[in-house]
Amino acid sequence: MQDQNSHEPERFPVRRLEIYDKSKGFIDLLSQLTQCNPISDEEFQSRFHDLASYGDDHVICVVEDDRSHKIIATGSVFIEKKFIRSCGKVGHIEDVVVDSSARGQHLGQKIIRFLSDHAKSMGCYKVILDCDVEKKGFYEKCGFKEKGVQMSLYFDRSKIPRV
């Protein structure tokens, strides 16, 4: 057991996504969450720079295993600026996933805390997310409460122009 006052670095710190994280298994990790087709290095770099242009309004965070140097957890938050609530802001958490080999180490909670703290620091009056029913208990442990119903409308990807 590690001493609480130890000066050793934390094994699983949360940090922002970096451009080199694709080679550390970032896309493979996302594939454990949902369909995530392979993308080229150029496509990754282009999307990375596009998202980085939003500054603190769109943050992707990761946990890198300091031994394997693989990305083993991730999540993102984007800030929606609204007219309601005195031009308030809402944080939307998305794409939270922990590698199947690293579950049970509270990495998901660390990701959620990092993203929620970021939304709060940006002046958001709330942070929201959608999840599958079987994940409800996890998010309740993180302090979230069920509210409303999620609705989805999916588009035929073959008819969506690539921008």
Automatic annotation (TrEMBL):
<dbReference type="InterPro" id="IPR000182">
    <property type="entry name" value="GNAT_dom"/>
</dbReference>
<keyword id="KW-0808">Transferase</keyword>
<comment type="similarity">
    <text>Belongs to the acetyltransferase family. GNA1 subfamily.</text>
</comment>
<comment type="pathway">
    <text>Nucleotide-sugar biosynthesis; UDP-N-acetyl-alpha-D-glucosamine biosynthesis; N-acetyl-alpha-D-glucosamine 1-phosphate from alpha-D-glucosamine 6-phosphate (route I): step 1/2.</text>
</comment>
<dbReference type="InterPro" id="IPR039143">
    <property type="entry name" value="GNPNAT1-like"/>
</dbReference>
<dbReference type="GO" id="GO:0006048">
    <property type="term" value="P:UDP-N-acetylglucosamine biosynthetic process"/>
</dbReference>
<feature type="domain" description="N-acetyltransferase">
    <location>
        <begin position="17"/>
        <end position="163"/>
    </location>
</feature>
<dbReference type="GO" id="GO:0004343">
    <property type="term" value="F:glucosamine 6-phosphate N-acetyltransferase activity"/>
</dbReference>
<keyword id="KW-0012">Acyltransferase</keyword>
<protein>
    <recommendedName>
        <fullName>Glucosamine 6-phosphate N-acetyltransferase</fullName>
        <ecNumber>2.3.1.4</ecNumber>
    </recommendedName>
</protein>
<dbReference type="Pfam" id="PF00583">
    <property type="entry name" value="Acetyltransf_1"/>
</dbReference>
<dbReference type="GO" id="GO:0006044">
    <property type="term" value="P:N-acetylglucosamine metabolic process"/>
</dbReference>
<comment type="subunit">
    <text>Homodimer.</text>
</comment>
<dbReference type="InterPro" id="IPR016181">
    <property type="entry name" value="Acyl_CoA_acyltransferase"/>
</dbReference>
<keyword id="KW-0472">Membrane</keyword>
<dbReference type="GO" id="GO:0005789">
    <property type="term" value="C:endoplasmic reticulum membrane"/>
</dbReference>
<keyword id="KW-0256">Endoplasmic reticulum</keyword>
